[in-house]
Structures are given as C-alpha cells and as structure tokens.
Amino acid sequence: MPRKFKITVNNVDYDVDVLEISAGTSQVMPAYTPTVSAVAPISSVPAAAAAPTSTAPAAAGTGDQCAQMGGVVVYIHVKQGQSVNEGDVVVELEAMKMKVPVVANRSGQVTRILVAVGDGVENGQPLITIA
C-alpha cells in the first residue's frame, strides 16, 4: 500500500506516493538507457555563450604536486622559493567538510604556486611545482 508524502522543492509543492517494500521482496529496476539530445553547432552559438565558464586543469608535468581529489584549497603551507622535503605537507584541500593534506612527493625548491586559497580544484590538477 503506497504512503503519501508532500515534498517541497524550490518552493513548489509535490504530492508523491511511495510504495514501501517489505523485507524479502525486491524489484528489479529497468535498465537505464541514456538519451542523446541534439547539440547546436559551435558556429551558431553566440561568442559569449561559447566561452567556457571554468578552465580545465593543466596537464601535470615533472615536479607538479597534484590534487588527489576535487575540493577547495584551504591552506597553502609553502611559499615560492621555499625548500621542501619529500613528505612535507604543501597544500591542504577540503571536500565534504574533510581536510586532506597534499604532501610533496619529492624534495626540492618550490618554483611555482598554481592555486590560491579559496580556489576550487579538480582531481589531478597541478597545485605547485617543485624543482
């Protein structure tokens, strides 16, 4: 027997029926078939709309210390020109209220800092370069 609920999303009320499944019974969900929508050719898109809203991360090079997950830079522990040892914490990221340290995978001198506190980063994005 379905149970009735009222759900509000973006100030719009929806009445929904939810069927409670008892233990020992299961239903197989139908296979998901993605649909492809038509995309307008780039030549017909106005220039302002064609510009990307965010930049893709640059490819990592030798000495780049990369984000091991997507998140936000909350602290940069090093300065350009500073010497670091392998295993030193160089940047701190936050995702889902968890802080994750990024450690140097080599010893050397910090030659570039590619992010700032508050920047959103993607998995694999270079954060600093150590030479």
Structural key phrases:
four-stranded antiparallel β-sheet; mainly beta; elongated; 131 residues; 1 helix; OB fold (Dihydrolipoamide Acetyltransferase, E2P); single chain
In short:
With 131 residues, the protein is mainly beta. Helices cover 3% and strands 40% of the residues.
What does this structure look like?
This protein is mainly beta and 131 residues long. It has a domain at 64-130: OB fold (Dihydrolipoamide Acetyltransferase, E2P) (Beta Barrel). The protein is 3% helix and 40% strand. It has 1 helix and 10 strands, in the order ββαββββββββ. A 4-stranded antiparallel sheet has the order 3-10-8-5, with no helix packed on it. A 4-stranded antiparallel sheet has the order 7-6-4-9, with no helix packed on it. Strands 1-2 form a two-stranded antiparallel ribbon. Strand 1 and strand 2 form a beta hairpin. The longest helix has 4 residues, at 47-50. It is elongated and about 65 Å long.
